[in-house]
């Protein structure tokens, strides 16, 4: 029994509370049903049950995690033009908050947790009568480890619940299937996506568990996909270093150069279009696609066919016309596709014709390897993540061009969603989504 006698809602992590939630069934739904706001819950937590968000890391981390840290505050969120680390995951969530105040509380909590997790720090031991402040999977000192957590919103968040319809990003829509898709509804859409990336896998898992622990009644995970990319040697000179995908080809080669800020303003960051709501400036459209690779079939396909399908050499990643990986393909002297087939993946995705520049997208994919299918086939593929300033001009245009490509014999999109990545958090007084909520309030 608890020794508390006041009428305040108890700390969400107390034993009593946990039993209460178990009795209700699903954690988040239970809280929502019980009519408790996350803010009331947060207020009821004793200070020593909450992590210390103050000091920078001073002691050496206990794991192999690194002390690389990306600054949290800025015009844009991290995790978009940030170099792709070895581990990434997308967690699509439904928002359980019941009104705009609850949504604001959720966004403020996310801001506070992500600011802490990406900076790192040490947790207090706390009162043993309460659950520990942290899962403990990284030890007592949390190293930043190159962690980025990128928060994006799905079209469903702009339904009637929060009164945000009037300020929805212009192109944000529910993802619909393309001809080769076999979308599994349980792996599609979501009110919010969290892209969590770091050098080590444990850091991403720790961040997710921390965020979920601090947002009871605010978020419920809908689906999740983890992925990895091989770490590339420093000798790699590409603008966004490529890494081999599970079809054995170098992936990322022809990405737009993330160091070119004018190019990023044109291709990746939203808000340069006067028809978008002003609050979207500094955000980006995020597309997530879970694309299964039929690796058993692929591994039996001739090398020449594989290279013709992509339009690149498998060993070096160079265009079929020759040169080295980062040489820009030129199709002008190959109008009939004698060297690079007209339906090669890279030629369809970017024909390099005048005016096509505006359709370029920033790809940030990870390879995934899940369990085994019932028929014994490996469930492997690409956690395809792309960012663009304009969803229609970017992914949707490029995917329509790719519809029917020869690669489709070896791939099957099975899930994903469209999201809008919120602009960055400027300083300590700002929080994720502040501009959106202020715009909605002034529209009312
Ligand atoms: C709708 C956009 C795209 C989807 C979906 C997509 C799936 C997909 N791609 C690969 C592997 C490679 N893609 C490569 C290049 C490339 N792909 C897209 C777009 C989509 N890919 C673009 C825009 C480009 C760049 C084209 C260019 O500008 O030349 C390459 C070549 C190397 C590289 O540039 O990264 C590979 C390899 C897989 C396996 C896949 C789905 C499973
Ligand atoms: Fe591709």
UniProtKB/TrEMBL annotation:
Question: What binding details are noted for the cofactor?
Answer: Binds 1 heme b (iron(II)-protoporphyrin IX) group non-covalently per subunit.
Names of required cofactors: heme b
May I ask which residue range the UniProt record assigns to the signal sequence?
Answer: none
Record GO terms (molecular function): ferrochelatase activity; heme binding; metal ion binding; peroxidase activity
- The catalytic activity of this protein is classed by the Enzyme Commission as 1.11.1.-
- A biological process from GO: iron import into cell
Q: Specify the Dyp-type peroxidase N-terminal domain's residue ranges.
A: 77-227
Principal EC category: oxidoreductase
Compartments annotated for it: namely: Cell envelope; Periplasm
Membrane-crossing segments per the record: none
Keywords of the record, alphabetical order, are: Heme, Iron, Lyase, Metal-binding, Oxidoreductase, Periplasm, Peroxidase, Signal
Q: Which GO terms describe its cellular component?
A: cell envelope; cytosol; periplasmic space
Quote the Pfam families the UniProt record gives.
Dyp_perox_C, Dyp_perox_N
Protein residues bound to heme b: 252-254, 345, 350-352, 363
Q: Which domain of life is it from?
A: Bacteria
Q: How does it assemble?
A: Homodimer. Part of a ferrous iron transporter composed of EfeU, EfeO and EfeB.
Q: Which PANTHER family would you find in this protein's record?
A: DEFERROCHELATASE (PTHR30521:SF4), DEFERROCHELATASE/PEROXIDASE (PTHR30521)
State the function annotated in the UniProt record: Involved in the recovery of exogenous heme iron. Extracts iron from heme while preserving the protoporphyrin ring intact.
Q: What is this protein called?
A: Deferrochelatase
Organism of this sequence = Chromohalobacter israelensis (strain ATCC BAA-138 / DSM 3043 / CIP 106854 / NCIMB 13768 / 1H11) (Chromohalobacter salexigens)
Recite the lineage of the species.
Bacteria, Pseudomonadati, Pseudomonadota, Gammaproteobacteria, Oceanospirillales
């Amino acid at each position: 029994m608890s020794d508390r006698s006041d009428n305040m809602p108890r700390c969400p992590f107390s034993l009593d509370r946990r039993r209460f939630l178990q009795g209700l069934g699903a954690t988040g739904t239970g809280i929502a049903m019980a009519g408790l706001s996350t803010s009331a819950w947060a207020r009821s937590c004793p200070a020593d049950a909450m992590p210390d968000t103050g000091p920078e890391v001073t002691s050496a981390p206990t794991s192999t995690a690194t002390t690389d840290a990306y600054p949290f505050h800025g015009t844009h969120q991290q995790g978009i033009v940030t170099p792709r680390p070895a581990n990434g995951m997308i967690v699509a969530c439904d928002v359980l908050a019941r009104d705009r105040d609850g949504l604001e509380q959720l966004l403020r909590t996310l801001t506070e947790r992500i600011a802490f997790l990406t900076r790192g720090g040490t947790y207090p031991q706390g009162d043993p009568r309460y659950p520990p402040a942290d899962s403990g999977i990284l030890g007592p000192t949390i190293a930043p480890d190159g962690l980025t957590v990128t928060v994006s919103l799905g079209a469903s968040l702009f339904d009637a619940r929060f009164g945000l319809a009037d300020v929805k990003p212009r192109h944000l829509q529910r993802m619909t299937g393309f001809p080769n898709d076999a979308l599994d509804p349980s792996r599609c859409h979501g009110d919010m996506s969290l892209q969590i990336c770091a050098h080590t896998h444990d850091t991403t898992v720790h961040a997710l568990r921390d965020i979920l622990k601090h947002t009871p009644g605010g978020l419920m995970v809908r689906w999740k996909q983890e992925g990895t990319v091989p770490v590339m040697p420093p000798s790699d000179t590409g603008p966004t270093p490529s890494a081999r995908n599970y079809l054995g080809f170098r992936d990322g080669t022809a990405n737009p150069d993330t160091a070119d800020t004018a190019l990023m303003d044109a291709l990746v960051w939203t808000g340069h279009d006067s028809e978008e709501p002003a609050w979207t400036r500094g955000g980006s459209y995020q597309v997530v696609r879970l694309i299964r690779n039929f690796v058993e079939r692929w591994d039996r396909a001739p090398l020449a066919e594989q290279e013709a399908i992509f339009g690149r050499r498998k060993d070096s990643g160079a265009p079929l016309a020759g040169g080295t990986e980062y040489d820009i393909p030129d199709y002008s002297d190959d109008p009939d596709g004698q060297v690079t087939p007209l339906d090669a993946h890279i030629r369809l995705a970017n024909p390099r014709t005048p005016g096509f520049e505006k359709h370029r997208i920033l790809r940030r994919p990870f390879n995934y390897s899940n369990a085994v299918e019932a028929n014994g086939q490996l469930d492997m593929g690409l956690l395809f993540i792309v960012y663009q300033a304009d969803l229609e001009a970017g992914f949707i245009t490029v995917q329509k061009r790719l519809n029917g490509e020869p690669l489709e014999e070896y791939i099957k999109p099975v899930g994903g969603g469209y999201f809008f990545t919120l602009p960055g958090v400027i300083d300590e007084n700002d929080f994720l989504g502040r501009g959106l909520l202020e715009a909605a309030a002034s529209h009312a």
